[in-house]
């Protein structure tokens, strides 16, 4: 039913809670990058998922990602959620652009 990496927050419906990867602060050549020069990180790890949404026929449409998967996020959007002094982002399942397969 609900899959969560922790028990303090469970997303509802088709929401997905993700933790963004940290931005690179040093280039491969060893040059330190200021915050303004760092690009926005679009990759994240799924931390928790909701049960899914209900389609027009009344059936439950499950979320397409699972906890632990690495996903590609849109550049803008998402709702910032702070839990245990860490920042997470809440997206709808349909807003996630794709997932990485290994």
Features:
single chain, 102 residues, mainly beta, 10 Kd Chaperonin, Protein Cpn10, Chain O, seven-stranded antiparallel sheet, two-stranded antiparallel sheet, disordered N terminus
What does this structure look like?
- Homoheptamer arranged in a ring structure. 2 heptameric Hsp10 rings interact with a Hsp60 tetradecamer in the structure of a back-to-back double heptameric ring to form the symmetrical football complex.
- The chain has a single domain, classed as GroES chaperonin (10 Kd Chaperonin, Protein Cpn10, Chain O, Roll), CATH 2.30.33.40.
- 0% of the residues lie in helices and 35% in strands.
- The protein has no helices and nine strands.
- Strands 1, 2, 3, 6, 7, 8 and 9 form a seven-stranded antiparallel β-sheet that branches. Strands 4-5 form a two-stranded antiparallel sheet.
- A hairpin with a 5-residue loop joins strand 4 and strand 5.
Low-confidence stretches: 1-5
Helix count from the secondary structure assignment: 0
What order do the helices and strands follow? EEEEEEEEE
Radius of gyration: 15 Å
CATH architecture call: Roll
The helix/strand class is: mainly beta
**CATH topology, what is it called?**
10 Kd Chaperonin, Protein Cpn10, Chain O
State the shape.
elongated
Strand content: 35-45%
The H-level CATH homologous superfamily, spelled out, is GroES chaperonin
Please give the domain count.
Answer: 1
CATH class: Mainly Beta
Distance between the termini: 25 Å
Please tell me the overall pLDDT.
80
Largest sheet: 7 strands, antiparallel
Instruction: Kindly state the percentage of residues in helix.
Output: under 10%
